[in-house]
């Protein structure tokens, strides 16, 4: 454009000079000079016009960059979160729901481990502004963690995650929010996001276009800075983990997502509550994918976008003391 404009100015200049010279030459000559002068003036006028057109073109802002796709065109991310009542439950769910609010085209499947929907969770979902489905299933007594047992003895959230899979496959049973499962042919991806982890909003865009099963590293897990797939030439060739590396899929629950059509095509794929310790993820994934076909995300699994954070259990010594004196914190205040 710059070069062209220069040429136009040059042409303008030359034509002006030519016109001037011609006028000078014609000066004092016997006069049939009017028509040529008129022609030169007309030519100049045309050039002027062209120049102002080009200047207007230059002032016009450059065309807007390609718009990101409309939200309707994006595959939906179904985020499955098991949750159970405890002191920090609301804090965890507020934090997670506000992270999820940053993600377009997301549907939260919140599954309570309870006999029925609790006011705390129902209220939180209603206030969240998210598209959600509220589900409830109580973990059978035999599977429940006993008092004092360390958390890793029994896998937690198994019934709840399976309940969400049931809803995705056939619907029914929702106690709040969207009741109908995704219509056939819905493009989407399913991610199992516990309520205590920390998620970067970038993670969700990494998983959105999953074709089968996508994977990425998880920070602060397995006694390591991070655990995750090892990738060579864009393919998963192994796993960086310190613990039982021979598990079929040594990945954390937060380290993979599954395409919805794949989950629907494999109705037997679910979590096995009787799976040995650390094999829960494998119990689902072995129905779905060959380890070599895992799709590495997060820059070939070199970026950590989710962290296995643990919230400390709050100490309630003073609360208990005050309660004994009948002066405990007002139970009507939801915490
Ligand atoms: C992942 O690795 C493959 C093969 O080396 C390469 O072509 C691709 O660009 C890499 N992707 C990213 C996001 O770094």
TrEMBL record:
Record InterPro entries: Glyco_trans_43, Nucleotide-diphossugar_trans
Pathway: Protein modification; protein glycosylation
UniProt cross-references to CDD domains, sorted A to Z: GlcAT-I
Domain of life: Eukaryota
Sugar attachment sites: 300
GO MF, one annotated term: galactosylgalactosylxylosylprotein 3-beta-glucuronosyltransferase activity
Site entry (Interaction with galactose moiety of substrate glycoprotein), positions: 227, 318
Membrane topology: Single-pass type II membrane protein
Record keywords, A-Z: Disulfide bond, Glycoprotein, Golgi apparatus, Manganese, Membrane, Metal-binding, Signal-anchor, Transferase, Transmembrane, Transmembrane helix
Binding site for UDP-alpha-D-glucuronate: 82-84, 113, 156, 161, 194-196, 308-310
EC number in record: 2.4.1.135
An example Gene Ontology CC term for this record: Golgi membrane
Protein's GO biological process: carbohydrate metabolic process; chondroitin sulfate proteoglycan biosynthetic process; glycosaminoglycan biosynthetic process
Composition bias, Basic and acidic residues: 312-322
Region annotation Disordered: where it falls in the sequence: 312-335
Coiled-coil ranges from the UniProt annotation: none
Annotated residues for binding of Mn(2+): 196
Pfam families, alphabetized: Glyco_transf_43
Compartments, record wording: Golgi apparatus membrane; Membrane
Reactions catalysed: 3-O-(beta-D-galactosyl-(1->3)-beta-D-galactosyl-(1->4)-beta-D-xylosyl)-L-seryl-[protein] + UDP-alpha-D-glucuronate = 3-O-(beta-D-GlcA-(1->3)-beta-D-Gal-(1->3)-beta-D-Gal-(1->4)-beta-D-Xyl)-L-seryl-[protein] + UDP + H(+)
Active site, per annotation: 281
Secretion signal, residue range per the UniProt entry: none
Cofactor: Mn(2+)
Family listed: Belongs to the glycosyltransferase 43 family.
Subunit structure: Homodimer; disulfide-linked. Interacts with PXYLP1; the interaction increases the 2-phosphoxylose phosphatase activity of PXYLP1 during completion of linkage region formation in a B3GAT3-mediated manner.
UniProt protein name: Galactosylgalactosylxylosylprotein 3-beta-glucuronosyltransferase
Species this chain originates from: Vicugna pacos (Alpaca)
Name of the encoding gene: B3GAT3
